[in-house]
Fold:
Amino acid sequence: MGLKELRYAAKVDLTKDPAALPYLHNRWHPDIPNCGTIKNGEVVKIECVDWTGGQIGNNDSADDVKNVDLTKVHYLTGPFEIETAEPGDVLVVEIQDVQPLQDQPWGFTGIFAKENGGGFLDDMYPKAAKAIWDFEGIFCSSRHIPGVRFAGLIHPGILGCAPSPEVLSIWNKRESELITSCSHMERVVALAPQPVNVHAGTASEDLKSRIGQEGARTIPGRPEHGGNCDIKNLSRGSKVYLPVHVPGAKFSVGDLHFSQGDGEISFCGAIEMAGCITIKFSVMKNGMAELGMKSPIYIPGPVEPQFGPGRYIYFEGFSVDENGKQHYMDATVAYRQTSLRCIEYLRRYGYSDYQIYLLLSCAPVQGHIAGIVDIPNACTTMGLPMDIFDFDISPGAPVKKIDMGTCAFASD
Amino acid sequence: MGLKELRYAAKVDLTKDPAALPYLHNRWHPDIPNCGTIKNGEVVKIECVDWTGGQIGNNDSADDVKNVDLTKVHYLTGPFEIETAEPGDVLVVEIQDVQPLQDQPWGFTGIFAKENGGGFLDDMYPKAAKAIWDFEGIFCSSRHIPGVRFAGLIHPGILGCAPSPEVLSIWNKRESELITSCSHMERVVALAPQPVNVHAGTASEDLKSRIGQEGARTIPGRPEHGGNCDIKNLSRGSKVYLPVHVPGAKFSVGDLHFSQGDGEISFCGAIEMAGCITIKFSVMKNGMAELGMKSPIYIPGPVEPQFGPGRYIYFEGFSVDENGKQHYMDATVAYRQTSLRCIEYLRRYGYSDYQIYLLLSCAPVQGHIAGIVDIPNACTTMGLPMDIFDFDISPGAPVKKIDMGTCAFASD
Amino acid sequence: MGLKELRYAAKVDLTKDPAALPYLHNRWHPDIPNCGTIKNGEVVKIECVDWTGGQIGNNDSADDVKNVDLTKVHYLTGPFEIETAEPGDVLVVEIQDVQPLQDQPWGFTGIFAKENGGGFLDDMYPKAAKAIWDFEGIFCSSRHIPGVRFAGLIHPGILGCAPSPEVLSIWNKRESELITSCSHMERVVALAPQPVNVHAGTASEDLKSRIGQEGARTIPGRPEHGGNCDIKNLSRGSKVYLPVHVPGAKFSVGDLHFSQGDGEISFCGAIEMAGCITIKFSVMKNGMAELGMKSPIYIPGPVEPQFGPGRYIYFEGFSVDENGKQHYMDATVAYRQTSLRCIEYLRRYGYSDYQIYLLLSCAPVQGHIAGIVDIPNACTTMGLPMDIFDFDISPGAPVKKIDMGTCAFASD
Amino acid sequence: MGLKELRYAAKVDLTKDPAALPYLHNRWHPDIPNCGTIKNGEVVKIECVDWTGGQIGNNDSADDVKNVDLTKVHYLTGPFEIETAEPGDVLVVEIQDVQPLQDQPWGFTGIFAKENGGGFLDDMYPKAAKAIWDFEGIFCSSRHIPGVRFAGLIHPGILGCAPSPEVLSIWNKRESELITSCSHMERVVALAPQPVNVHAGTASEDLKSRIGQEGARTIPGRPEHGGNCDIKNLSRGSKVYLPVHVPGAKFSVGDLHFSQGDGEISFCGAIEMAGCITIKFSVMKNGMAELGMKSPIYIPGPVEPQFGPGRYIYFEGFSVDENGKQHYMDATVAYRQTSLRCIEYLRRYGYSDYQIYLLLSCAPVQGHIAGIVDIPNACTTMGLPMDIFDFDISPGAPVKKIDMGTCAFASD
Structure:
C-alpha cells in the first residue's frame, strides 16, 4: 500500500566510458534500439551523464574545453519505448524533478575555442575558458566568478522523440543544402552526419555504421521534434508536448543543465552536469492533429526562482553590428549586441569579459524579442537579475572595482 | 504646504490637426526647437496623441489602416530641454504613470496592408485589418476579438533624446547603405529621410525644410538613443537610462501603448492610444562613461500584471522557414515560425488567423530567445498567458469551436 | 460607435461640508435613501471623500488627528440601487480602477491618541501622530518618514451592501452584549449606534433620527456583508462577491486607501485619501445559496506590486505578551508582538518608534497566521518588503544610523 | 579539487525505534548532550524522522492517528554544537534544500481526535481522520482527497537552539501559570513537562530523568528561540536568524513538512514526512543586540511555488463565532471563521468537511491578518490557490458535484 520508490528506467555509471554504456546514444535515428519500455502513465527516473560524457574536469584549466571532441556529443539516455505511442500522437512529458547526482555536486560552463566549437561571441572572444560551479542545495557558486550565487532553474537541454525515416531525410536534405549554399563562409554552419565516434546503444556494428552515415547530430534542435532546444524554463513541474514520429515514440533525454541563461550564448554555456530526471509520461492519442502541432509546446512549472520585475536590469541591442553595419531586421545581430552591452556594463566591477561571457551564458538572464517590426532594426533585450550578485549592481549605486580573480583558461 | 497638482509640460488638443500643434514633431533632428523646459528632478505630465495623429477611427472598417499615411508618423511630444543635461550625461526617466486620456477610453491594433507598411507576417497575411479595444479601468477587451480580456502593461513605444549632428549623420549613412545594398529585395528595408509631411514643431519653414532632408524617421529604434524600441515593459514604475547627445537632452516621447506583445508583430500591433505620461527626470552627470553605456538600459516597474509561470503556454520556433528552408542561426526566422505555431494552435477555438495575428501583437505575450548557439537553428519561444481568455485554452482541456465574429477588414 | 467616457455615478465636491452632500452617508441602515441607480452589468465611476470627510490637513501637526471627531466617520458614497438585485443574490463588484483625485495628490496616515480612537499598539504609543504622503504616479513618499518609497496597492477600505432590518438587529444585539459584558474593561470595545453627527443622505429628519438610533457604525467590518474589512488586496482588477440583503442591494463604498499594511495597525493606518473608484457591477442570482456564502469572498487583481519572496524580511511573534504573560492561542497578542519585533528592528536605522508604527500601518507588509495549533502559542509573522527602503535593510548589511527627522505630533 | 559530496551530520535509520537513536531527542533542555559538531560556515545534511517517529502508517485507517502517543513527540535531530557560537550571538541557518527520503516518498496529514490532541476546529470535527500523500518529484497528491495536486513548499516545522536554564525556567513558569489560570476550561491549554517517554539522546538515566522533569515540550513554538513555529515559507533557499542562548548553540531540527497551509489548522496538519535537510550554518557574533532581536527573523527563499495573485480565492472571517457571539478583536476566532467559510464553499464539489479540513491544513493556503483595528471585529482572510484543483473552482464556473471518495477514518 502506498507509493514505492520510483523505478529507475536507467542508471548511469560515471566510472565507465559512456561509449560503452548500452542505454546511451549520441545520434538521432529511428533505428537505434530501445533501451527500455515505459508504460503510458508511468513515472520513472532517468539518469544522464553530462553532455560531453565526462570530457570536462573539475579543475582550473580549460585545456579540456579547448580540446573537447565534439564528434562524441551529446550522450543522451534512451531511446525508451513508450507503450501505446504511435505516429501522430503527442507524448506528454511532465518533468517532476531534476537533480544533480548526489556524488557529483558540481557542473561546468565552457567557452569553446573559436576553431573548435565556437560560440555566439567567438569573434570577440575566441579563446577557450571555463568556470566550475559548486552546488549547495538549490544554489550554485563558482570559484572562477566570485560575487555571484543563484538558485538553479534546473532542466534538460535536450529531450525529444526519434525522427521517422522521412523526417530524418528532410533534416539531412535541408541542412546539407545550407552547408552547400554557405560554403563561402569562413565558419561551420551545420553539422553533417558524422560516422566517427558514433554511439548507437546496443546497435549491431552494421546498424551502427548505417546510423553513423544517416543519423542526425544532436546539435541543433529541430522543429519537427524539439530535441536540443535549450529552453531554460523546461524545469521542475513543466509539461512538454512532443510530436511522435515512430511507433513507441523512442524518447531520449540528456544534456542536463543546473542553470542556463536565455540564448546559452557561450554554446557550452549552461551549467552542464550529470544528473537524474523524474518524468511522468502520458500519450495523447492523435494529439498532433488535435493541437494543430508542428513543433513542441510546453507549460512551465510553478517553482521558478522569482525575482521581482524591478530587480532586473535590462540591456537593449539593435540590428547594427559591432562594426557599425546596419542589418535588416536581424534579431540574431541584435541579441549579440545586447549581450555585449551587458558585458560592457559589468566590466566596471572588475570582472573580465570572459568571466561575464560565461556568467551570461549560465545565469538566469531573460532574453526577449522586444520589437521586430520597425525596419530595419530588431530590438532585443537581456534582463540581468540583480539579486544574484552579493553587491549592489544597480546603476545608481556606488561602484567599487575589485579583484575578481580569473576564470580558467587553456594553457595555450 | 504639500504637493500640488502636477504640472503639464504639454497638453494635446485632439480636435486639432496634429501637424498644427507646436509641441509635436515627427522626425528626429537636433535642431527641432524645444517646446518647453523641465528642471532636473522635476515631475511633469506629458500628453501624447496616438502615433498616427488620429488617422484611425473607432469603427468597423480597416480602410483607414489600409490607407494610412506613414509619412506623417510618429507624432511625438517634445522636444523638451532638460536643465543641466549635457552630452555624455545620462537622462534618468522614471515613468511614474501612463494613462489613456479620460475622454478617449479606447485604442486600436492594426495590420497594415503588405503594400503600405506591412508587418512581420505580411507574406502570409497581406491584407489590412483592425481591432478596436475598449478600456475598462486597467482592463481592455475588443468587440473584434471576443473571448479575451486583459490588464494593460501600458507604456510608451518611443522615448529618447535628440541625436547630435554626428549621430544623425551616422544613422543616415548606415541606413542608406542598407537601402542601396538591398535594392534587389522586393521590400522596403528602411525609411530614408522624407520631406513630405514633415512636422518640426515651431521650426521656421527653412529649418523645417532642412529637417525634412536630414531628419531621421521615427521608425526604427536606434542603438545610440533608443527611440522607437517598443519594449512592452517600459511601464509604470520603470526607470530608463537614456544617453544624452545634445545640450539640454531634447527629450521626446510618444506612441503610447495600452498593451503590446513582445515583437509587436503586426507593426501597428500594440494597442495604440492617445494618453498622458507622468515622468520624473534626473540627470546623471557623465553617466555614459560611468555606466559604460552605448544603448539605453532600463529597470522595469513593480506592478506588471503577473500570471504564474505555469499559466503560460509556450510555443517553439526554429530557423527553418515556412517553405522548409534551413537558415543559419536566424532568430528572426525562428520568431516568425514561433508566431505561426501559436496561430495554428488558436485556430481550433474558432478565431481567424487575422484575429490571432492582431491578438499576438497586442496581448502581453512573452517572446524569448531560448537557444542561439546550436548551429544552424536558433530557437525562440512565445509564451501566451492562458488567463487572458475566458475559456480554458490549456492543451488538455476540451475544445469547442465557436463563432468568434470577425475583426475589421478594408472594403477592398 | 465605441465606448464613451464612463458615467460618474457620484462626484464629490471637496469644498463642501460632506454632511451636506446628498450622496454620502455615515451609518449602515436599510432605509437610507438610494442616491442613484446602476444597471446590472454597468461600469461606473464613483468618487469618495476621505473617511474623515476632510478633517485632516496636509500639514506638520497632528492636532487634527488628536481631535478628530469619530462620530462623523466614515463618509461613504451611496447607497446605490443595483437593478435586479434581490436578497439572496450575490453582487459581483469588479474593481476596474482606483485613483486619487487629480487635484489632491496626497494622503495621510494617523495614529489616534489613546483616549480618542486608539490603535493596535496604543498601550505603548498613546500619542497622536501623523505622516503626510505625496503621490507621484503609482508611488508615494512622505516628508515625515524619509528613506521609504513604494507603489500603492490602492483599494477601498469599505464596500458592502446595506443590512436588512433583521441583519441590523443581529448586529446591534451582539455588539451591545459585548459592550455590556466588557464593561469592566478600561477601553471602548465596540461602538453603539450614535445619534450625533448622523448623515443619512437625503433622509428626512425623522428618518435620519431613527437611523441615528438604529444605524450600525461603519466601524467595524461585519461577517454578514463585509463593509469595513480593510483588506489591502481589494485593489485594481479584483473581484468581490458581496451578499445582498435588501432589494436593490443598496451598495456603498468609501474609505479609499492608497496603500495599507496587513492589520492597518495604527487604526487610521492606511494612506487615507479622497479618490475615484471604477466598478463593474453584476448580479449573480441566488448566489448566496449557490456559493454557500455567509461572508464576502474575493479574487485579487493581477497587478499587485511584486517583490520577489526573497525580498522580504519576516518577523515572528507569539502569544506571550510584552509583560511576559502567556496567553492561550491568541493570534491578536501574537500579531501585536510581531509588530513590536519589527519596530525594534527598524530602530537601528534612526527611525523613531512612532515613525515605524505609522510605516507598518500603511506600507504593503504581509501579515500571516503561521501556526495556530501548537498550544498555547499562536505564531504570526509580518513580512516587510526590503525594496521600499532606499538603503539596504537586510540583516547582513552594514548599518548606519542617520537623522530621520520626525513625524508630525500634536502640539502638546 | 572541487566540492565533495556533502557531509551527513546525522542519518536516520527508519527501521529502528527512534527512542533508541542517539542523535534524536524530544524535549528542549540545555543539558541534552550534543550529538555532533558543525563548523561555523559548514554545509551539512541532516536527516530527520517524521515528527511522530513512525507512529503513522501508509494505509486507509486513522486508528493510528486516533491512538497516537503524544508524549513521544516531536523527535528532533540534534542537538548540534555549532563552533564559535556563544549566547547573544545569532545563528544564521540557510536552508539550502529539503527533500523527502528517497525510499519513503509519501507523507500524511492527520486530524487528531478531540480527546487526544485536537485541533483548530475540533469542536466541529472531533473525529480522527487521515490523508496519505504520494510524492511525485515536486508534486504531491492523495488517494484520500481526489482532484487536487500541488507542488510542495517543503520546510522544517521545527528548528531552533536550546534554551538556557534561565530561558527554560521562564517557559516553565509562564506556561504553568496559564495552566493554573485556565483550570476551569474544558481543554488542555498547554503541555507541562512530561517525564513519560522522554528521549534525551545519549543522556545518562539520571540526566534523562531530570530532563523529563524540567524539559520543555516541543509543542509550542516560543518567542525566545522559535522552535515549533510551523512557518510554511521556511523552505528551500530561506535564511533564518536564530537567537543563541547556550555555548555552541545546540541546534536541533525536525518535523519536516512537504507542504503546509498557513495555520496548519488540523494540528497534525502539514504533510508530515521523514526527510533530509541541507543547511549552511554561520554565526553572527553579538547578533541579538545588533539586530535588536528578541524572536527569530527570516528571509524566504526564491523558489516558492507561484500562482498569480488572481489565481487565489480569498475567504473572509470576523470575530463573531459560530454561535453568533461577538468577541473583541479576536483574530483566532476570526481565522476559525475564515476556515469554516472555505469549508462551506468547497462542499459544493462533493468533498466532505473532513477532507476539506485536511486539505486546508496542508495545501499552500495563505492566511492573512487583514484588519485588526476596527473594534470589535478582527478580519482575517484565507487565500486558496485555484490551480491546485484539476477542475475550475472559481465562483463563476459551472459546478458539478462528484463522488470524492473519503479520507481515512478511525474504526471507532
